[in-house]
Every structure is written in structure tokens, then in C-alpha cells.
Amino acid sequence: xxxxxxxxxxxxxxxxxxxxKSSGPGDIFGKLRDFMGVKWTPEGQxxxxxxxxxxxxxxxxxxxxxxxxxxxxxxxxxxxxxPLAAVGFVVLLKEWL
Length: 97
What we know:
This protein is mainly alpha-helical. It contains five helices and two strands, in the order ααββααα.
């Protein structure tokens, strides 16, 4: 039970971080944020053009929604959640080191 909770938490953290902060391969996450309404001023500050942009600028807000599919995947089959947990662990290490 504790292992599942840790796996879900790390998976949620990893996916949320990727969607809010990472550019990803081919800038896929940057393009997704742009599509969702996250824009940049010429001075380099982010702003939201609509509520979905606000969602993709806030890690806490987005993690609420990301936790649902991550939890469902992990409960359906723990092996489906492990890769997401690994991403979360790597992101956590990156932030700490």
C-alpha cells in the first residue's frame, strides 16, 4: 500500500513537472503549453491567455488533474505506473541536486 502511494506520488510529480517546466523532445511539452494558453512576454515572463494556461502554469493545480489518470493506471496494473514513478524520481533528484 505504501509502495503504491509512493509510486503514484512520484508519477504524478514527474508528469506534472514535465508538463509545467520541461520542453521535452521536439519541444512537445512547450507546444502543448502554448496550445493550452501559456504565453511569454518579450521580457521572458509567462502569462496565461485562458484558464487552461493558468492550469499549465501551476504545478499544484495541474497535479490534482494528473493524479487521476496516474492513480488509475497504477491501480489497474502497477507495472503501468512504474515508468511514471521512475520519471518522478529522476525529476526529484534533478531538483535536489
